[in-house]
Specification:
This protein has 18 helices and 16 strands. Helix 13 crosses helix 14. The two termini are about 50 Å apart. By secondary structure, it is an alpha/beta fold. It folds into 3 domains: about 300 residues, TIM Barrel (Alpha-Beta Barrel); about 70 residues, no CATH class; about 130 residues, Double Stranded RNA Binding Domain. The strands form 4 sheets. Strands 1-2-3-4-5-6-7-8 form an 8-stranded parallel barrel, surrounded by 9 helices. Helices cover about 40% and strands about 20% of the residues.
């Protein structure tokens, strides 16, 4: 544990459930290796509680907890998750709870029913038996040396329907030794003012009616879902009303509409409400953590996510850019570097010289308003955007354009021609299309002819280019085409319409986007693919050994 983490005590405790609740998102699946990588990243972020899963619910979670013993976390508590014992069963003989104990965690999060409707309709048992299930399960876990966080499932719906009974369920958890009571908005339909009111009422009840002495009172937490679009706001309202634990997930992943997004909660709590959650220096790794988790779960990052999104501190309008250049506070609510993000100046046909100068500066190029090249670059930009190019979404292509206008663009290879052939081949009960691409390129005075197959023309073309260039530029082996978008610019002219292709490339650490436009979709794709390779090579090739500038 680092010195700053060892000396740090949170005002609000962050409890991450990305590996359990977040993994319930439709289309998201995590391997054991994925879960371990994310757990260690969250640990490095400074998150104090990481819920690892439900041991016994599936073999993967059992293996995860065992594997974590071989690769222990540095400062976070890993938490096992489970439900109360089954109706009519003894906690000490319930196989589910034996699996929880076998996971070997110091903390266990137990969820139980708060809503009488769920007790009678879902569990199909009596209200008294549900209270006994909560009490017996927690008491058993405590007798085995475990510390318990009690998640009151469907708390807000249950409290609204039958407040007396909902409070009895909390009383059962307190009597058995729960140290945290987490109020869950499981259906995600509660509004912030309602959350604040209920948390205040529960806080008052804890002091006056729970029967526990003040030093022994459990602390309150909040667990919100985003079905009403208010998960983050609800969690913040709960903290302002007295909750000192917030449960959520990285990037808001979760079932249905997701959970409270820790990437928004952490900076709002720490920077806006002045409630320390993680060591201050760790907050600057939040954007990196968000994008790493996106990469591991194989979901594209949300470019417009607050705080950590690519566009969170992007400025497009010329007036905005001019103001931000003078004082960033004019159009930014925080300094981007506090969360590990960065300011971006977006260029488009709405751009003025302020955008161009600021954008060039972000690439380490100083231009002057009086320099004719600045005006030339602006005019060239607007001319190309009029043809259908879109540089606000393809900054790599804009940097290449800027280098071309300034006479500093390197030529890594020269295309001499390409040919693509597609076959529709019978395969069992259906047909399968395969593409064959042949490319001829000139590299260092050598003419290279290469052929490759792909599941489509763009895939085949990309593969053939890589094969042709790999011996000259080994860094290309790290590049991958991570996204491909096509837009028809004028559908009224049918198949003769211009097509804009955006290609996103990655080297495993960075992402960059390039653009191509043509009435021929293959040509537009080629432009974008080639520029993607060229841009990647610029950052990988030392200046001293780059090819001739064109």
């Amino acid at each position: 544990m680092s010195a700053d983490a060892a000396d740090f005590t949170p005002a609000v405790w962050i409890y991450d459930t990305t590996l359990r609740d977040g993994a319930q998102r439709e289309g998201l699946a995590l391997s054991i290796e994925d879960k371990l990588a994310i757990a260690h990243k969250l640990d490095a972020l400074g998150v104090p509680f990481i819920e690892g899963g439900w041991p016994g619910a599936n073999p993967k979670d059992v293996q995860f907890f065992w594997q974590l013993k071989e690769e222990p976390l540095q400062q976070a508590e890993v938490v096992a998750f489970c439900s109360t014992r089954r109706p009519g069963k003894a906690a000490e003989t319930d196989p589910m709870l034996q699996a929880i104990l076998a996971a070997g965690t110091r903390w266990v999060t137990l969820f139980g029913k708060s809503w009488d409707l769920h007790v009678t309709a879902s569990l199909q048992t009596s209200l008294d038996e549900n209270l006994a299930m909560i009490h017996d399960t927690i008491a058993f876990l405590r007798s085995q040396g475990r510390r318990v966080i009690y998640d009151a499932e469907h708390w807000f719906d249950g409290y609204q329907a039958n407040p007396d009974y909902a409070l009895q369920t909390l009383g059962a958890a307190i009597a058995a030794g729960a140290e945290w009571l987490v109020l869950c908005d499981t259906n995600g339909g509660t509004l912030p003012h309602e959350v604040a009111t209920v948390v205040e009422q529960v806080q008052h009840w804890l002091v006056t009616h729970s029967g526990a002495t003040t030093p022994d009172l459990p602390r309150l937490g909040i667990h919100t879902h985003n079905d009403g679009g208010t998960a983050v706001a609800n969690a913040l309202a709960a903290v302002m009303a007295g909750a000192t634990m917030v449960q959520g997930t990285i990037n808001g992943y979760g079932e249905r509409c997701g959970n409270a997004d820790l990437c928004s909660l952490l900076p709002n709590l720490q920077l806006k409400l002045k409630q320390p959650c993680i060591p201050p220096a760790k907050l600057a790794t939040l954007t990196e953590t968000s994008r790493m988790v996106s990469e591991v779960v194989n979901l594209a990052p949300d470019d417009h996510a607050p705080f950590v999104g690519l566009s969170a501190f992007a400025h497009k309008g010329g007036i905005h850019v001019s103001a931000v250049e003078k004082n960033p506070r004019t159009y930014e609510h925080i300094e981007p570097t506090l969360v590990g993000n960065q300011r971006r100046i977006v260029v488009s046909d709405q751009a003025g010289l302020s955008n161009i100068l600021a954008k060039a500066r972000s690439f380490g190029i100083e231009l002057n308003k009086q320099d004719p090249q600045s005006r030339q670059l602006l005019n060239r930009l607007k001319e190309l955007e009029n043809q259908g190019y879109q540089f606000e979404a393809a900054e790599a292509s804009f940097e290449l354009l800027m280098r071309e206008v300034l006479g500093t663009r390197s030529q890594f290879f020269e295309l001499r021609g390409f040919h693509i052939h597609c076959d529709n081949l019978p395969q069992e009960a259906h047909w399968k299309t395969r593409a064959l691409a042949t490319v001829k390129v000139m590299v260092e005075d050598q003419e290279i002819l290469e052929v490759a197959e792909g599941n489509g023309p763009v895939s085949a073309l990309d593969t053939a280019l890589r094969k042709a260039l790999l011996n000259f530029y080994p860094a290309i082996a790290q590049f991958q085409l991570s996204d491909y978008k096509v837009r028809i610019l004028d559908g009224r002219v049918g198949t003769s319409a211009k097509t804009r292709v955006l290609v996103e490339s990655s080297d495993g650490y960075r992402r960059w986007t390039t653009v191509g436009v043509s009435s021929n979709i293959i040509e537009a794709s080629y432009q974008a693919v080639v520029e993607g390779l060229e841009y990647g090579l610029i950052s990988k090739t030392p200046v001293a050994v780059r090819p001739t500038v064109v």
